[in-house]
Amino acid sequence: DPESIAAVRRFAKLTGDIGALSEPDVRCIALAYMLERDAHGVAHLRTSPAPVVLSKHKHNKASKMAGWDFVPNQDDWAELDEMNAEAEAAAEAVAKKMASAALEDDAESSDRKDAKLPKSARIAAEVAAEVAAERGAHNAGTGPDDADKADKEDANDAEEEDDGWERTVSRTTRVRHAKRTQRRKEAEEEAR
Question: What is the average pLDDT value for the chain, to the nearest integer?
Fold first, then answer.
């Protein structure tokens, strides 16, 4: 209703809120105004905002607020101060223990060739070496031609077992597989 929207805009201009209200806000308020007008009339609604009333209470900015600026009774807070001091001392002790443990780890690992690596990196390197050793033992005595034959056999097995499901592989693996397949096709065409 254009009349309700006009009334809401006029009132918002008087309060200074017109800049903060979006068009949907204005329409929503106008809808509420229209429903109230139809149900109960507008006699009880304001047509202009209430005048600004300044507080007669003087705010004393110099007064101190208990708990923020001062403590009226120091004995009440003494226990809290002691607890804070204990917590700080405990935190310092833990930090010293962690620093000494780190120094001990560095001293133990200085004998190794990879002493500059962090502990997590050394563990990862050890695991990688174990995996490489297992793969080396598994593929011992096989050359690149044998690997291509194994890939062809795997591809043939996959085609035979096609039941509508695809293996979940990473994008890199898919790209490598596609390149390998393309190289095989090119080699077969050159052989002909």
Answer: 76
pTM, two decimal places: 0.31
> Contact at 8 Å (CB) between 60 and 37?
no
Is the per-residue pLDDT at 159 higher than 60? no
pLDDT of residue 7 exceeding 90: yes
d(CA 86, CA 125): 42
3-state secondary structure of 118: coil
Quickly list DSSP for 21-75.
Answer: --HHHHHHHHHHHHHHHHHH-STTS-SSPPPP----PPP-TTSPPBTTTB-S-HH
Yes or no: say if 12 and 18 are a contact pair by the CB < 8 Å rule. Answer: yes
Q: Which two tokens stand for residue 132?
A: 């490489």
The owner of tokens 């009774």 is 73
Residue 49 φ/ψ region, left for φ over 0, alpha for ψ in the -120 to 50 degree band, beta for the rest? beta
> Could you give the count of Cα atoms lying within 13 Å of 30 in the half-sphere of its Cβ?
18
Residues paired with residue 66 on neighbouring β-strands, in sequence order = 70
User: How far, in Å, CA of 104 to CA of 49, rounded?
Assistant: 74
pLDDT digits (tens, 9 = 90+) for 24-46: 999 999 999 999 999 999 999 98
Q: Which long-range contacts (CB under 8 A, 24 or more apart) does 48-57 make?
A: 48/11, 48/14, 49/11, 49/14, 49/15
Instruction: Report which of 60, 56, 42, 44 is spatially closest to residue 3, judged by C-alpha positions.
Output: 42
